[in-house]
Specification:
The complex is a heterodimer. Helix content of chain A is 32%, strand content 26%. Chain A is α+β, with helices and mostly antiparallel strands. Chain B is of the alpha+beta class. The chains are: A alpha+beta, B alpha+beta. Bound molecules: flavin-adenine dinucleotide.
């Protein structure tokens, strides 16, 4: 279980990194961030990049700040940075409640949020978070930058809109308005395993009723996404069991479930029903 | 030291002293096979398909690659059984024209480092004409033969039926049927397999260092296969990071490493990676068991009929043969119950899957699961509670001779059940269960009572008709001139704490501290021939031999002391590292006695032989440990997830030499059993591709999945062994799956569904609930 031979590059500046990436990307070059997904698949030789552009020493990519009402998360920010709220509002609390579901402590100290987003595992908690909150993903390449909305970023199983010479430099999240309710729930076989289904919900209460509901589901389809049917079942309703169940049913019915030899589509729908309702229940606890 | 250590009382035995082996292990100073440097590293090219004919193996130009063509003089691994319609089948060291399972070794790529070897292996071109694989044991008869010796793929086929069985069957009040399915597992030791072989140009000897549970048998087997004298092969098992049975069978990889060292007069090493371990190290417990229990109106089991179908994989493991699972199942299915009439058919069939080998408990986790499910199912059908049906059937007269002729020594089947029941507080649990059901939460309580046959010697193994019949153990005990002691043993502990427990046994006999006693094992140049560590045998048998040798050495020390202190032997007391004349202050240090035994022998006028070495051997009939395991679970009926809330075990392993080590053995076994019941499953698709080749897919439990475990001990000092001890290495893993499965079924009882397949994955539980809902909706 040793990786196939490769060349590792260690740029110190973003420009240098982008220049190297531009050069090596066509020769099967890839970004190395925390290595917690890439290194295992290289060890299995399921990935055989000829070049790795190691961004761990690139200055400036460790940015974690609030600017113009947005939380900006640089490409070197580790999962572990979110163990405590990174900002005092609901977004900081939300990210702190989600992060503990990612893998195990040592992995969270190495893996990065942007690495998770770029890797695009359907079960990734950060992909679900980015999709649910409509994050903006900032892609940089030699001589260019574009901002990709999360809904356009995830293109399927382990596949994103990033071009091979693009670096995901930042993820940006709108701060959530004060009073925003949120809840997260996931199902996995063992603590720390990848989720077999996960749900994240946020909403506000306006005049005792749910408004601006967002319900995202991950791990159940090729990419995480918001489920409009579930959101519709919530908006305008009083928060409580009836609305939560209706939203859970709607989400369960709306998905196009991933299947494998052990997991039928029916079972995946069972899980989605359970995690959506439980995420909503968590929002009122 | 306190006066309590005087004499030969049991002052060290029975104490929870810390393990003498641990300081090195927990400070990273252990020595494992993979730590050794080697001139050559080996990477195996493994079959990517389950079945087929090899058309081409093309190494990259100039690469050092070995295939079956170079191994002409090397014999296949071909263990033998003389009974039970066994058909001997051979396993080539490298696939010889045909591949029979995904992961089978096709070629060995060799380079100066592991990394380069893997690059070469990667570049070897292999072409295989695939054929349709046989994966499920039930398809054996309708599939092409894996081996010409077994056209129907049946490798072992055994039947028994007690004389009055049919009459008893006809008179039964009720027949209860249980069809159990146990999915395939991998023992997953922390350290995967590894081997290192070096050639000594001075002597021409080969030293094979490998992670094994049986160094001597490894030496015998490899010397036979390579046609060399055993004395030219030294096998060392250094620190071994767990085995659980997976390391008691001979891997073809080890044979190749030894062959390479001999052939190329150099050093060669191989360390398995986790993927290789999961796909190609031994699997276990892929079985179907159908039981029919004939009960009388009071719930007494009158007759039991069993059909065992074991998937043995592609080859038969050495030395036990693939009979080990089906034949153990046949012998022990009636368990701890008094059932006089028994019939059983047990078959082992070859398939295109990784070969099967023993795994902690061997068949017993499976048969116990089947039998304990049967008892619970019978209890429901007969309207008895699960505790009472066990009370009515557990044996309580000893010695008890089973329908299969096994002799059960004294034990506490009923007492451990009652002890566990008391600690569970069943009425309180039932009340909580009822209350929570109203909130949509489903708790379950599951009992399992079982026996664990341990410490059996050669007569017991002889019943299986193996060409290699294990059983006895030998030890050598030497006190050196400084008064320190070396105990050389033939068993090969790899985590069980034997360096500590055996030292405790010796310490009591010799009146010295265990810290003065070094236990030497796992080196065929240093320790007497022995069978190794498996089958919960080492403490009982090696410990029994140790006791015998220590008693002899004690006698010699006393004899020396009588000369030196001019006292009668019966007045000499050993303790505090000294020999003392009872009731006086006349005393001599044992170290001084030892010195004289070597350096002042003239003083003994030829009455005492020089030196201080004694040997002991022991070959007991066997003894049964027993326990009652209780699991409390909660089943999340929306997702099918099972959470084990609490686990209670009341067990009896006879005299406990070291309570901490005993508890550790039970804890570890229960953890594995919980994994067995709800998590671990090796999965093949219908093409024979293995889908559980990483630890992200094959799921051993982690600390999160293991609940608090409460242990209670009874100690029946058996007369069946000289230490009055019984083995307990496997019991934790034997009873816990059944307890968890019964608890899951108890939790699901309001829904009228049964789960008789292990592991009880959330998918299976949901599928059963959904099927039930659908039939109800349809009705
Ligand atoms: C045992 C285990 C359990 C895990 N469980 C979970 C879990 O429950 N949930 C979960 O979400 N994850 C889990 N992970 C994965 C972990 O979160 C990874 O850290 C994460 O998926 C990838 O982040 P990384 O920084 O380690 O990226 P890397 O492994 O370095 O890279 C992953 C991929 O993304 C690309 N990449 C990385 N950064 C960038 C970038 N800035 N721009 C462009 N491309 C980039 C790489 O080229 C590579 O293809 C687990 C991992 C392990 C080993």
């Amino acid at each position: 279980m040793k990786p196939a031979p490769f060349v590792r590059h260690t740029p110190r500046t973003l420009d240098e990194a982008l220049a190297i990436l531009a050069e090596v990307a066509p020769q099967d070059g890839r970004v190395l961030a925390g290595g917690q997904s890439l290194v295992p698949i290289m060890a299995f030789r399921m990935a055989r990049p000829a070049h790795l552009v190691d961004i761990n020493e690139v200055a400036g990519l460790d940015k974690l700040i609030v600017e113009n009402g947005m939380l900006i998360v640089g490409a070197r920010v580790r999962h572990g940075a979110f163990h405590k709220p990174v900002e005092p509002g609901p977004l900081g609390a939300l990210l702190a409640s989600v992060v503990h579901n990612i893998a195990h402590y040592p992995i969270r100290m190495r893996g990065t949020m942007c690495g998770s987003l770029a890797h695009a595992d359907p079960s990734s908690e950060w992909c679900l978070t980015a999709a649910t909150l409509d994050a903006e993903l900032v892609a940089r390449r030699k001589g260019g930058e574009r901002i990709i909305p999360a809904r356009d970023f995830f293109e399927g199983l382990m596949s994103t809109a990033l071009k091979e010479d693009e670096l995901l430099a930042e993820a940006r999240y709108m701060l959530l308005p004060a009073g925003t309710k949120f809840g997260f729930n996931e199902f996995s076989r063992r603590a720390g395993d990848f989720a077999m289904s996960a749900a994240l919900a946020t909403y506000r209460i306006v005049d005792g009723r749910i408004a601006d509901a967002r319900v995202g589901v991950g791990g159940a389809e090729a990419s995480p996404r918001r489920i409009p049917e579930a959101e519709a079942a919530l908006n305008g309703q009083m928060p409580g069991d009836a609305a939560f169940r209706a939203a859970a049913e709607a989400a369960s019915a709306a998905i196009d479930p991933l299947e494998d030899i052990q997991t039928t589509g029916e079972y995946r729908r069972d899980l989605v029903r359970a995690v959506v309702r439980r995420a909503l229940e968590a929002s009122v606890k | 030291m306190s006066a309590a250590t005087k004499g030969s009382g049991t002052t060290w035995v029975g104490r929870a002293i810390r393990r003498l082996e641990d300081p090195a292990l927990v400070t990273g100073r252990g020595r494992f096979t993979a730590d050794l440097p080697a001139a050559h590293w080996v990477r195996f090219v493994r079959s990517p398909v389950a079945a087929g004919t090899i058309k081409k193996i093309k190494p990259p130009d100039g690469a050092f690659v070995v295939t079956a063509a170079e191994l002409a003089g090397v014999k296949p691994i071909k263990p033998m059984l003389y009974k039970f319609n066994y058909r001997p089948i051979g396993q080539p060291i490298l696939a010889d024209g045909v591949v029979r399972f995904t992961g089978e070794c096709i070629a060995a790529a060799i380079a100066a480092s592991e990394e380069e070897a893997e690059d070469i292996a990667d570049a070897v071109e292999v072409e295989i004409d695939e054929t349709a694989p046989l994966i499920d044991a039930r398809d054996a008869a309708s599939s092409a033969a894996l081996h010409p010796e077994a056209p129907d793929n049946v490798i072992v086929n055994a039947q028994v039926k007690t004389p009055e069985f049919d009459t008893a069957w006809r008179n039964a009040h009720r027949i209860v049927r249980l069809e159990a399915r146990s999915r395939r597992q991998n023992a997953t030791p922390m350290e995967p397999r590894a081997a290192h072989a070096a050639y000594d140009p001075a002597t021409g000897r080969i030293t094979l260092t490998c992670t094994t549970q049986m160094p001597h048998l490894t030496r015998t087997a490899i010397a036979d296969l390579l046609d060399m004298p055993e004395s030219d092969l030294r096998v060392i098992a250094p620190d071994v990071g767990g085995g659980f049975g997976q390391k008691m069978s001979l891997p073809p990889e080890y044979v190749l490493i030894a062959w390479l060292a001999r052939e190329h007069r150099s050093s060669f090493a191989w360390t398995e990676d986790r993927r290789e371990n999961l796909i190609a190290s031994y699997h276990s417990r892929d079985q179907y068991i159908a039981l029919d229990g004939a009960f009388d109106a009071d719930g007494k089991l009158i007759a039991l009929s069993a059909d065992v179908l074991a998937n043995i994989g592609a080859y038969s493991c050495f030395p036990t043969t693939c009979g080990v699972e089906p034949l153990m199942a046949m012998a022990e299915i009636p368990g701890p119950y008094d059932v006089r009439h028994y019939a059983c058919t047990a078959r082992g069939v070859a398939t295109n899957t990784c070969p099967m080998a023993p795994y902690r408990g061997v068949s017993r986790p499976v048969i116990t699961f089947a039998l304990e499910r049967l008892m619970d199912k019978a209890a429901v059908e007969l309207g008895i509670n699960p505790i009472d049906i066990r009370r009515r059937n557990l044996i309580d007269q000893f010695p008890y001779t089973s329908a299969m002729g096994l002799v059960f020594d004294e034990a506490t089947y009923k007492e451990t059940l009652e002890l566990a029941v008391k600690h569970v507080d069943v009425p309180a649990f039932r009340a909580r269960q009822q209350a929570l059901r109203k909130q949509g939460r489903y708790l379950g309580l599951g009992f399992c009572t079982f026996s664990e046959r341990t410490g059996y010697g050669s007569p017991a193994f002889a019943a299986r008709g193996m060409a290699i019949t294990p059983g006895w153990e030998m030890v050598e005990l030497t006190m050196d001139p400084s008064g320190f002691v070396e105990l050389r043993i033939g068993t090969s502990p790899h985590g069980q704490g034997l360096r500590t427990t055996l030292a405790q046994i010796v310490a009591d006999q010799l009146g010295i501290e265990p810290q003065r006693i070094k236990v030497i094992h796992g080196d065929t140049d240093r320790s007497p021939y022995g069978w190794g560590t498996f089958a919960s045998r080492s403490l009982v048998i090696s410990g029994g031999a140790t006791l015998i040798a220590a008693q002899k050495l004690r006698a010699k020390i006393i004899k020396l002391a009588t000369h030196m202190l001019e006292a009668a032997p019966e007045d000499i007391v050993l303790g505090d590292s000294a020999a003392t004349v009872a009731g006086t202050d006349r005393s001599i240090a044992i170290a001084a006695l030892a010195r004289d035994a070597y350096h002042q022998t003239h003083r003994f006028k030829g009455e005492i032989e020089p030196g201080m070495t004694e040997a002991g051997h022991y070959d007991p009939p066997g003894t049964f440990s027993n326990a009652c395991h209780v699991a409390m679970v909660e089943v999340d009926i929306e997702t099918g997830q099972v959470k084990v809330e609490k686990f209670i075990a009341a067990e009896d392993c006879g005299r406990i030499i070291n309570p901490m080590i005993a508890d550790g053995q039970v804890h570890g076994g229960i953890a594995q059993g919980i994994g067995n019941a709800i998590l671990e499953e090796i999965l093949y698709d219908e093409n024979g591709t293995i889908l559980s080749s990483t630890l992200a897919d094959f799921l051993p439990p982690t600390a999160h999945e293991i609940p608090p475990i409460e242990l209670h001990h009874l100690e029946t000092h058996t007369t069946a062994t000289n230490l009055q001890a019984k083995g307990l290495g496997e019991g934790g893993a034997i009873g816990s799956p059944a307890a968890v499965m019964n608890a899951i079924n108890d939790a699901l009882s309001p829904f009228g569904v049964a789960i008789d397949e292990m592991p009880a994955t959330p998918q299976r539980i949901r599928a059963a609930l959904r099927a039930r809902q659908q039939t109800e909706t349809a009705a």
